[in-house]
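Lab notebook page, bench 4
Experiment: in silico fold of construct C2
Operator: M.H.
Input chain length: 171 residues
Purpose: comparison with the prior construct
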Amino acid sequence: MFAALDTFSRWVSRVGAIAGRVLIFLLMLLITVDITGRYFGYPTMLAHEMSAYLLVAITFIGLSYALRTGSHIEVTVVRDRLSPKVRWLLMIVTSVTATIFCGWLTWVTLNVAIESLTHNTTSITIIHTPLWIPQSFISLGLAMITIELIAETIRRIIGQAPSENKVAESV
């Protein structure tokens, strides 16, 4: 059962990594077009807003891959001084807490996106972006990291190497 979850979480993380790369490319392209347009006197009216939305999407979509590959920043000054048993217990408690929090946050942000879709909420900028679109990226990214946190918690409980000991998986 866990093998299927681990395979699924690996797949979700890889999809997030690939999507993040595509979004970074789109962000780079958008900024390049805007700079080029400004040079010739034709700035885009959407580059600032769209680049902010893309940055949010890149951040949230990449969270699960960062967790899987051990790329999140950790402060371990206290943890490293604990006994192995206490450290293991602390890692379980923090993994469960993070899973619950991210699951709850996924639910909350999904409800916000659904409400924005239902009420046709748009940005107050010139292009009136439907806000459910960028909000959906937040919910999706949080759902992805929640899946990875569930797998990470189970890995810790059954004694498999946690993600911080893994070398970054190639995508």
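Observations: DSSP finds five helices and no strands in the chain. The chain has a mean pLDDT of 91.
Next step: discuss at group meeting.
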